[in-house]
Amino acid sequence: MPIAKIMLDGIAVLMLTAIFAVALFSQDQSGVAAGTSDPQIAAALRDVSPQRIEQTIEKLVSFGTRQTLSSDMPASSGKGANAAAAWLQSEFERYSKECGGCLEVKTDEFIQEPAPRVPKPTKITNVYAVLRGTDPANAGRIILVSGHYDSRNSDANNATDPAPGANDDGSGTVVSLECARVLSKHRFPATIIFLTVAGEEQGLNGSAHFAKMAKAQNWNIEAVLNNDIVGGDRTPGQDAHVVRVFSEGIPATADEKQLKTIRALGGENDGPSRQLARYIASVGKEYFSPATFQPLMVFRRDRYLRGGDHFSFNEQGFAAVRLTEFRENYNHQHQNVRTENGIEYGDLPKFVDYDYIANVARLNTATLASLASAPAPPANVRLLTKELQNDSTLVWEPSPGGLATGYEVLWRDTSAPDWQHAKDVGNVTKATMPLSKDNVVFAVQAVDAKGHRSLTVMPMPER
Ligand SMILES: [Zn+2]
Question: Measured between alpha carbons, how far is 130 from 59 in angstroms, rounded to an integer?
C-alpha cells in the first residue's frame, strides 16, 4: 500500500476517533454528556435548573427555622415547620397542575410521642408526590427520592432562632422537588415518589414513620435515594466533581441464618443497598463525562457515628443509600448564625453551590428514571452447587412485570469494588459461565429492548 494511502487511512481513523470522542464526551452547559442512551432521560437532565434550585433554597431559608419542634407555630405566620410543609405541598401541586394532574400530592402527618430530642408530643408532617407508573404490571414498583426539610441550629431543641438549613438539608429537599418538576413531564412504567420529611434532626422520626407505613402496607420500594447535605459547600478543599454515595453492605434486617450465609459466601459487599450504589455508579458513567461529575462509592452505611433517613428505610428491609457532598464544613452545619474571631458560622445560602446541587439533582433524576424505565430485577436468583465443577450455572425466575427482553450476567474479582464484566445471555432463565464460582462474585440483571437495566441481584446457593 502506498505510504500516502496509509497516512490518509491513519488520518481518517484519527478523525473518526475524534468525532466519536466528541460525541461521547461533548458537554452542553448542564455538564451532561451528549450521546447518552435514553433521549427522554437526557432531556429531563437538561431541564434541571440551577437558577430554580437557588430560588427554592432561598424560599426554604425564608421560613426562618424549619426545626421540627416549631410545628406549634401556625403556617399562617410564614415561619416554622408548618409554613415550610404547606409551601412544599403547594409547590408539588403547582408541578402537578403543569402536567395535567400527573402527581398525587400527599402528606403523612402524625404526632411523635416524646423521645430523646422530642420533649413533648409534636406534630410531624412528611410531604410527598407520587408519579404513578403507567404500566399496571409495573406501577406497584416504587423508586423513591428523599430529603429532610427540617433544620436546626447549635441547640437541637431550639425552635425559634434562625436555622437556615440551606445545605442541611435544603439541598436534599430541593433535589426531591427538582426531580419531581423535571420528571413529571415524562411517563414511566414504574412509580416514582418524591419525598420530603421532617424530624430528621430530632431522631429520623419522619422517615421512620414513613418507612414503617410503607412496610406495613407492603409497598414494593426497589430503591431509596436519600440526599442529605448535597450543597457542595464552597470552602476550599471541596471537590465539586464528586458526590459520595454511602451504602450498607450487610442488610440491617439480616437474621442469624442470613448472616451465616453472608459470612459463608463472602457476601458482605453485595447487599441490596450496595447493589444500588453500584447502579448509581453505572448511571454516573452513562450520563456524565468522567471529568465533569461522578458519584464516589463509599462502602460504609454513613459517615463515622453519623446517620440519616436512609437508615429508616434500611431498617424496614429496603435498599437505601445516602448521597452527600465530598467535603463537609462543620462551621456551616448545626450552628447558630454568627461571626466569631472572623469565622462565619451558620448554614447560609451563600455557602452552597447551585451548579453542584444541579448535578446531584441530575444524577438522582437519571437514576430514578433509569430504574422506573427498567424491568424489575430477576427473582430468586440462584447458583447451583449440587455438583462440584469449575463452570458456574446460574438460574433465576423471569423478571416480574413483563418488561425484560433479556438478562445479563455480571461478575468481578472477589476483591474488586465494582463489576468488571457483563455478558448478554439472552432471554433465558439459566446460564452456565466458564468460570469458577469460587473465584468471582456473580450477579444477574434484567434488560429491556432499549437497554434499560434493572438492579443487580447476587445469587444465593442452591444445593
Ligand atoms: Zn441532615
Answer: 23
**How many angstroms separate the alpha carbon of residue 186 from the centre of ligand 1?**
30
Ligand 1 geometric centre to CA of 169 (Å): 5
Residues 234-258 have pLDDT tens digits of: 999 999 999 999 999 999 999 999 9
Contact 200, 147 (CB under 8 A): no
Instruction: Work out the pLDDT band at 34, boundaries 50, 70, 90.
Output: low
The string of DSSP codes covering 242-271 is: EEEEEE-SS-TT--HHHHHHHHHHT-TT-S
**Crossing angle between the packed helical segments 354-373 and 272-287, to the nearest 10 degrees:** 110
∠ CA 128-129-130, nearest 5°, is 125
Residue 205, Cα to own-chain centre: how many angstroms?
A: 20
DSSP codes of every residue in 96-124: HHHTTS-EEEEEEEEEEPPBTTB-S-EEE
Model confidence pLDDT, tens digit, residues 145-179: 999 999 999 999 999 999 999 999 999 999 999 99
Sheet holding 220-227, edge to edge: 103-112, 122-131, 191-197, 141-148, 220-227, 320-325, 242-247, 294-298
Q: Which residues surround ligand 1, an ion (CB under 5 A)?
A: 168-169, 228
Contacts of 158 (CB under 8 A, 6+ apart): 65, 67, 152
The contacts of residue 217 (CB under 8 Å, 6+ apart) are: none
Which pLDDT score is estimated for 9? Answer: 43
Measured between alpha carbons, how far is 265 from 441 in angstroms, rounded to an integer?
Answer: 9
Q: Which pLDDT value is given to residue 31?
A: 59
So what's the pLDDT on residue 388?
A: 82
Q: Residue 118 C-alpha to ligand 1 middle, in angstroms?
A: 17
Residues listed for the chain: 463
Residue 310 to residues 204, 207, 281: CA-CA distances in angstroms? 9, 8, 18
**How far is C-alpha 297 from the geometric centre of its chain's CA atoms?**
12
Separation of CA 430 and ligand 1 centre (Å): 44
- Alpha-carbon span 138 to 124, nearest angstrom: 31
The phi and psi torsions of 9 (rounded to 5 degrees) equal: -60, -45
pLDDT in tens, 69-91: 999 999 999 999 999 999 999 99
Distance from Cα 147 to the centre of ligand 1, integer Å: 8
In the numeric block, the cell 436512609 is attached to 310
For residue 364, give the H/E element and its range: helix 354-373
Query: Measured between alpha carbons, how far apart are the two ends of the chain, in Å?
Result: 61
Mean pLDDT is lowest, of 17-26, 245-254, 363-372, 450-459, for 17-26
Amino acid 35: pLDDT:
53
C-alpha 169/C-alpha 171 separation (Å) is 5
Report whether 349 contacts 61 (CB < 8 A): yes
